[in-house]
Amino acid sequence: MLPRLVVLALALVLFPRISAADEPAASQDALREAVEKSLPLLTAGARGHRENRTCFACHNQGVPILALTAAKSRGFAIDEEELGRQLQFIADFLAKNREQYLQGKGQGGQADTAGYALLTLEAGGWQPDGTTAAVAEYLLQRHDDKSHWTSTSNRPPSEASPFTTSYLALRGLDTYWTPEQLVRVGLRRRRVRQWLVDTPAKDHEDRVFRLLALRQVKALPNEIAAAAQELTGKQRPDGGWAQLDSLDSEKDQSAAATESDAYATGTALVALHQAGGLATKGPVYQRGLRYLLDTQQADGSWHVASRSKPFQAYFETGFPHGKDQFISCGASAWATLALVLGCEESALKESSQ
């Protein structure tokens, strides 16, 4: 047990006091206004994908639905009919691949896509059924000879980290396992847990999803705290986070990836709060919120430049920013989710009455 004075000293270093005059907390009115401006765009981007494609998209459906359902739970009005259509679309997409899942074969995007699809269904309250059981079976068979799950694509930031893939697979199994799968789920969790503890993160995406995954496997408190501290330490002077620490190890990447953006900041805040226990009223979270409020565009979106090489024919979803719209939609969804988590529930209930 550390002496009380040492604990207080560490707290001051990790979570420095701020002057209310210099860095006031983000106002609840500003947070609610920002969320309300963003939600229609996220809905439009998700609808645009659903109406133009037959596949599930993490950036235009998965993360936006996480933000929409969280907003709904905090009292914000959303298009619930469209949410229902989205969930049915995702369930139908998975059902088309049901027999492949039972054979250990996936779909495009493999465990990333399957894991995000289950996470999205979970957020929407989708109950376990034969299809979700089949997807869980696929995740159990996928990379069963390895210590963890890996991504099959190199589409940074969201489809390039084994920590992201492993977290999504773990989350899907924890939600949609069947009694027949329970023993294998437990064995897989223990194996992945050891890999998570032993393997250091290399960049921001790794740090975010390693923290989320450590919490998912119920790692020791000190292991989770160390991962949270590492991520917290990467907050930049402007209050945001960047996708990359430097460009030294990556080629053909924009220098913008080393600057703060909504994707890195939104994912960091959500992970630190949900997995690291970071208080939304604390200085670290509040600085992140102010960064997001300051960088939100007039239309309610956040613009993030794409780092991935296109492999699909371009089409408009209704979300702004042209050929950067897919990552910008996902980034805006993470930013919105972070803002929603910073909204006080009591204030939301009062404003909705």
Walk me through the topology:
Elements: H1 4-14, H2 28-52, H3 58-73, H4 80-96, H5 98-102, H6 110-123, H7 130-141, H8 162-176, H9 182-198, H10 204-216, H11 221-232, E1 241-242, E2 260-261, H12 262-274, H13 283-295, H14 325-341, H15 345-352
Antiparallel strand pairs: 1-2
* Widest β-sheet, arrangement of strands: 1-2
Order of helices and strands: HHHHHHHHHHHEEHHHH
**Structural class, from helix and strand content?**
mainly alpha
Helical run tally: 15
Share in β-strands:
under 5%
Note the main sheet: 2 strands, antiparallel
Shape: globular
Low-pLDDT stretches are: 1-13, 15-21
What is the terminal-to-terminal distance?
A: 48 Å
Number of strands: 2
Instruction: State the share of residues found in helices, binned by percent.
Output: 55-70%
Instruction: Determine Rg (CA atoms, Å).
Output: 20 Å
Average pLDDT taken over every residue: 91
